[in-house]
Design a protein that fits this description.
heterodimer; A: Rossmann fold; 4-stranded mixed β-sheet; 42% helix; B: 292 residues; mainly alpha; ABC transporter involved in vitamin B12 uptake, BtuC; amino-acid transport (chain A); ABC transporter substrate-binding protein (chain A); Peripla_BP_I (chain A); Leu-bd (chain A)
């Protein structure tokens, strides 16, 4: 056998081995369950993907190993109903590009044979990915994209345990109403939003809520995302000087917005953000000194650890991987995978339609999660309507929950810049 | 819109435009010298920003002081890029233009990937500096000191570049090589050496721009893309190879961008720049000051 023949023989043996594997594994109980994870791992929001990876790997540790925590999917190693099968994650990079997301979803389903997909941070990407999963009949767990329009496409395989921007924005306006009752002045709001589906959907909701509840819209600025400068945009906000500035921005623009406001001598009376860039620690590391008193909506609050000690355990596990605390995004990613694992276990099967039915039948009390949610129970559109959002205020070194009053641990400082 | 608001928009546009010009001039210089478009130009900018950020972390000195260091480091990066990559790309027997494009594009991807791998894709920014966050209030028109510093550095760099090109032997050699690459060899000018120095100089200029930007802009591996595209438009508008053209075009791009954002919905702020660019391409394809 010469070198060339040897090489050929090796290649064909390897190919035969890999071809034989799926055939045999179907027959017995599966040894592992493959789940696709599609996030921005490179490009301008790569850090989100890297943090997400740490969150998912923390969740994986909890699912695949035995942890005595009062948390969904924590007890016992692996998925009991599938003979203790372990979950394996396959990560894919969408670079914040909806088309790349679509291609990766196809690849994960057809090549990697994933049982479900979880993703995708950017709502624009979740939109294309969920269209692919729907077509192939594979469940899509939307962990952290918050555009309301995602659930309005009559999809059977789309599930979102966390709140969407209508629920978040309604909480903001409930909070404004409550402040008004206390005699604080809030007449006008200023909308500032980026030009993809996240910003546009968020602003549509906020515009409608403002009109319905009688708040004047003093500024309504749609801006180009990742701009080199935001001077003209901030100039418009400054001339309008609304009682509350409501930005819907990703991280880069959040940092530039705050810097530019300071440069142009504009101190918004109040700032209530649609999370995203304003829930990232890097934003506060960079411009936190100018954000004292800023409020952001959130799905998660570390305060809750006082009531549910396992949240601290989970946070410590995450921190050991990423050196950061869990935040609005990573908490939702973490929880999303646990809920998916719980449903696959209940389905006792890897087939898309069965996992889908199990997801649809989910009914878990909020106390078994790390979130302030009342319950996890998906509606016919796949949205969990009981994912109660919270508002957090930044006090210069940490966030405290200020709304709703049931979970608040402090009164809001209002106005932020008097 | 009040006069004050208009003045603010114009002033901001002018300051940003001077920085755009400084970013673009290196690209223009390299193209003029040897007809190579450097697609890694934005990544050179990113490298310079990380150099300043790194020095700031390790020495805790003010980032303003690192502008010359960034320029020097980038000079080496540029010269090495020529000697290590572009020189070989230019020897391609067929499709030389394509080979050069892909060589520099590959360099761009490499630099981005290396930055993401070794420096993480986290957003960095320089917190405290002499100029950071300080503004000059001229009767309600706010001029941020970091951008003013950037404008001054840009003007100084263009002045220096003019003197270098017109008063020194190196400038003459550069000009001669640009005119006729073949003939200069006959009078004893080493073409390779001039090209390497030209790449160094072009990269050093974008290094200065990066040092200025690092003071007030966030830093991450993809930051070059934001400014890179504007640099290509600026160079095409001013005329490929024209140093003075880059200055004028940079200022025009800055002003048009600011005015578009002020009068149209800001989401369309790039519309003005690209409409202007399209107009120039149709009416005067060589750019405002191009000699092609």
């Amino acid at each position: 056998m010469n070198r060339r023949e040897l090489l050929l023989a090796g290649v064909s043996a390897a190919a035969a081995g890999s071809l034989a594997y799926p055939g045999t594994s179907r027959a017995q109980a599966p040894k592992e369950v493959t789940i696709g994870v599609i996030y921005p791992m490179s490009g301008a929001s790569a850090q989100v993907g890297i943090d997400a990876r740490n969150a998912f790997e923390t969740a994986l540790d909890i699912i695949n190993n035995d942890h005595q925590l009062d948390l969904v999917a924590a007890k016992g190693a692996g998925l009991a109903a599938l003979g203790g099968a372990k979950i394996r994650l396959v990560f894919a990079d969408h670079q914040a590009d909806p088309q790349k997301g679509r291609a990766e979803a196809e690849r994960l389903i057809t090549q990697e044979k994933v049982s479900a997909i979880i993703g995708c941070y950017q709502s624009s990407v979740s939109a294309t990915v969920s269209a692919v999963t729907e077509r192939y009949g594979v469940p899509f767990l939307c962990a952290d994209s918050s555009s309301p329009s995602l659930q309005r496409r009559n999809m059977k395989f789309f599930f979102r345990p966390a709140a969407q921007d209508e629920m978040f924005s309604a909480a903001m306006f409930d909070f404004f109403d409550a402040q008004k009752k206390k005699g604080k002045k809030i007449d006008s709001v200023g909308l500032f939003f980026e030009d993809t589906i996240f910003g546009v959907d968020s602003s549509n909701t906020q515009r409608k809520l403002a009109n319905d509840r009688g708040y004047k819209i003093a500024a309504d600025v749609k801006y180009r995302t990742n701009s080199p400068s935001l001077t003209a945009e901030v100039q418009q906000l400054k001339s309008a000087d609304p009682d509350v500035l409501m930005p819907s921005t990703y991280t880069t623009d959040a940092m530039l917005l705050v810097k530019t406001m300071a440069e142009l001598g504009f101190k918004p009376k109040n700032l209530v953000a649609q999370a995203s860039g304003f829930s990232e620690q890097v934003t506060y590391d960079a411009v936190g000194d100018k954000l004292k008193g800023a409020i952001t909506r959130a799905s998660f609050s570390l305060d809750l650890a006082a009531k549910r000690p396992f949240i601290k355990t989970v946070n410590d596990m995450f921190k050991a991987r990423s050196t950061r605390d869990l935040n609005d995004n990573t908490s939702r990613q973490f929880m999303g995978l646990l809920l998916l694992a719980e449903a696959i276990n209940r389905a006792g099967s890897l087939e898309g339609p069965k996992v889908r039915d199990a997801l649809a039948a989910t009914d878990i009390p909020g106390t078994s999660t790390i979130m302030p949610w009342a319950r996890v129970k998906y509606g016919p559109d796949g949205q969990n309507p009981e994912a109660s959002p919270v508002l957090l205020q930044y006090l210069g070194d940490k966030f405290v929950t200020i709304f709703p009053s049931e979970v608040a641990i402090a009164d809001a400082i209002w106005p932020m810049n008097g | 819109m009040t006069t004050q608001a208009l003045l603010q928009v114009l002033a901001s546009g002018l300051l940003m435009g001077l920085i755009y010009a400084l970013i673009a001039v290196g690209l223009s210089l390299i193209f003029g010298l040897m007809d190579v478009v450097n697609f890694a130009h934005g990544e050179f900018l990113m490298t310079a920003m990380y150099v300043v950020f790194g020095l700031f972390l390790f020495t805790a000195l003010d980032p303003v002081l690192f502008a010359p260091v960034a320029a020097a480091v980038l000079f080496c990066v540029g010269a090495l890029a020529y000697l290590g990559i572009v020189r070989f790309a230019m020897r391609a027997k067929a499709n030389q233009g394509m080979v050069q494009i892909f060589a520099t594009f590959g360099l761009a991807t490499l630099l981005q990937g290396a930055a993401q791998y070794f420096l993480t894709p986290d957003y960095r920014s320089i917190g405290n500096s002499w100029l950071g966050g300080k503004t000059l209030d001229l009767g309600g028109v706010f001029l941020p000191w970091p951008q003013m510093f950037g404008g001054l550095v840009s003007i100084a760099a263009f002045g220096g570049l003019y003197l270098l090109m017109s008063r020194t032997d190196f400038g003459k050699a550069l000009e001669a090589t640009r005119e006729d690459q073949g003939a200069v060899a006959l009078v004893g000018i080493d073409r390779n050496r001039v090209f390497a120095l030209g790449w160094g100089l072009g990269a050093a200029l974008v290094g200065l721009a990066g040092a200025v930007l690092a003071i007030f802009y966030y830093i991450h591996p993809q930051v070059g893309a934001t400014f890179g595209l504007i640099a290509y438009v600026t160079v095409a508008l001013g005329g490929f190879g024209s140093v003075f053209g880059a200055l004028v075009a940079g200022v025009i791009v800055g002003l048009v961008e600011a005015l578009t954002a002020a009068f149209l919905p800001p989401a369309m702020k790039s519309l003005g720049i690209f409409a202007l660019y399209l107009g120039v391409v149709f009416i005067r394809p060589s750019g405002l000051f191009g000699k092609l």
